Amino acid sequence: MAKQFPEGFLWGGATAANQFEGGYKEGGKGLNLADVLPGGKVRLQIISQPGFNYEIDHTKYTYPNHEGIDFYHRYKEDIALFAEMGFKVFRMSIAWSRIFPNGDELEPNEEGLAFYDRVFDELHKHGIEPLVTLAHYETPLHLIKEYGGWRNRKLVEFFERYVRTVFTRYKDKVKYWLTFNEINGATHMPLIGLGFSPESEETRLQDSFQGLHHQFVASAQAVKIGHEIIPGSQIGCMLIYAPVYSFDSNPDNVMYARQEADIFNFFCGDIQVRGEYPYFAKRYFKENNIELDIREGDLETIKEGTVDFISFSYYMSRTDKKEKTPEEVGVGNLIGGIKNPFLKASEWGWEIDPVGLRIALNELYGRYQKPLMIVENGLGAYDKVEEDGSINDDYRIEYMRDHIKQMGEAIEDGVDLIGYTSWGCIDLVSMSTGQYSKRYGFIYVDKHDDGSGTLERKRKKSFFWYKDVISSNGEVL
Hints:
Elements: E1 10-14, H1 17-20, H2 42-48, H3 71-85, E2 89-93, H4 96-99, H5 110-125, E3 129-135, H6 141-147, H7 154-169, E4 176-180, H8 190-194, H9 201-229, E5 234-240, E6 244-246, H10 251-274, H11 281-287, H12 298-304, E7 309-313, E8 318-320, H13 354-368, E9 372-376, H14 394-413, E10 417-423, E11 443-445, E12 457-459, H15 461-471
Parallel strand pairs: 1-2, 1-10, 2-3, 3-4, 4-5, 5-7, 6-8, 7-9, 9-10
Antiparallel strand pairs: 11-12
Helix pairs in contact: 3-5, 7-9, 9-12, 13-14
């Protein structure tokens, strides 16, 4: 029997500007990081190794993010489809470089501001609440090449100007905001989250945690500014969350799993939710030779700018042990670990663990006692269009049904869960691989890895299933 979801639960879907918007040079937009990342397996190599040059080379690579799925021109059609499913909320991001093309201008780009006005108006026309991420892997390229990304404290100033601009412009249109997407993934892939390619493995942690400190200050400032400009606004943090299981009951492995969970799952959350660096940070910094430049007033700003709610992505859990061989290592979303013998995996090797979502919800709520929102969860898979045009993605329905059931269990446990936006509610470009073929959506987009396709939208079987889930408030699964 399905568990009862609270009245007013925010059902919806999630996207990011750089993965579906397109129009990468239109409307006065400047280049951002995603615009120079090529598609295909080479992308993972680029974002995980030092020395990326940030140049576009059409002779060697394709750049699917440039067109995405052309939401820039088709937003009315797409929002109508979201409304048909019954969305209460739609998570999207603002492309920073559409508002400030270089990132360091004194005045914003009016064409960019007007575009998001039209999008928000269209959402409201259909009764859909926007949930807007301020920074979702879209650092303006100029800030990366000229300033070195978030390692440079100047970006705190530039980000403040950006958030003041969008909060002032959209104060009557957007209530729910998120600051930095998957902020805790930055130490694993600094290029994506912090806008710099590490010079070496030796400097990666030092530079990453310094960049994170700047983001903590910027996030706290954004919360304070948002509350000042938009009374009643709700501003959250956004984590990538993966419960860490010990491979066995060996106390050494249990302790290792705990320490990994602390630094990955809780370090950023403690700072953004509790407003201070956690107790375990001091030893971790000492053992990894990390010395932060913390300026006067930073810690006070962080303390005063704690978030109103916690949002997170959940795709998988992680199983680990202290000593492991290369053969044991599994494949994960920004995370390592070893294969869990009790779990199946997706076609991309991501382990499927619905109960892990209930564990995640209980861990987060137990630690912070703040409202929670799941803003990314979904199954990347190859979808086949049948001769009659149908797309029978029963595997996606099964995946989501199992996860939503565990959300219901967590609510029964006493967790304050306020919303769920499934990732890639419409097919888009994969962040990690730059592929169209890794599809997440309830809506199929006729676009393929070789660049071919009409961009026609089609409703998958899961479209109608999710519509029933929403209309029944989670009772019909």
